[in-house]
Amino acid sequence: MQDAFSRMELLVGNTGVKKLSRAKIAVFGLGGAGSQVAESLARCGVGSLTLIDHEKITLTNIGSQVLALHSTLGMSKVEAAKKRIRDIDENILVHTYETFYNEETAGMFELRSFDYIVDTMGTLSSKLLLISRAREGRVPVISCLDIGNKIDPSRLEVADISRTTVCPAARIIKKELRKQGIRKLKVLYSREQPAKEKLFRRRRTMVKKPVEGNISFVTGTAGYLLAGEVVRDILSAGNVSHS
């Protein structure tokens, strides 16, 4: 009998479909890449998605974010994502947190309950905190680094952070993680030089990066690549999930 995932089953088999249906995944950040990750995972029939973002959809998001439509302007990104996911597969458990991830809110999340964590947040301090907490909980994490001011999606690449080049964010994160004894981290980054002069300047407080230009086919491709990594890792892993 055909269902929404019949064609995917031809690729991954019934066992793969069942693995994905048991997977519990958290997506921190629902911008251009993060929103595409969440949608792509939903279209793979994952069992549970936890979505974290504190922002609402604005007019400037329409050019690069799948959640952004004139009909969704003013909605919180997590609620827009939940509504869209429900329309894809009403059986997926969707948990939403309209909050900013930092030291004050990190205690809201039991990271060990997830099978995989996707970090697409734009704030360095939040990224570093999440990566550190995920490592403590022994939970796989993939982090999306700076893809702003890029126009060539073919230059996007998944690699260990130790093998990254060009990306200023990678250099900063690499240095900070070494202080914590963390030397390995799967990341998505761009090998493309920024379209205009940089941009990602480190601030003492390591708060949000300056506003950057972005374009739909770069952010969308980034989301697809991240989702692909998550799905392939889950399919190749042992039994999921954490109960």
Automatic annotation (TrEMBL):
GO terms for biological process: cyclic threonylcarbamoyladenosine biosynthetic process. InterPro entries: ThiF/MoeB/HesA, ThiF_NAD_FAD-bd, Ubiquitin-activating_enz. One of its GO terms (molecular function) is tRNA threonylcarbamoyladenosine dehydratase. Residues 11-237 form the THIF-type NAD/FAD binding fold domain. It comes from the Bacteria. SUPFAM superfamilies: Activating enzymes of the ubiquitin-like proteins. Pfam families: ThiF. Its EC number is 6.1.-.-. Keywords: Ligase. PANTHER family: TRNA THREONYLCARBAMOYLADENOSINE DEHYDRATASE. This is tRNA threonylcarbamoyladenosine dehydratase. It comes from Blautia luti. The gene is tcdA_1.
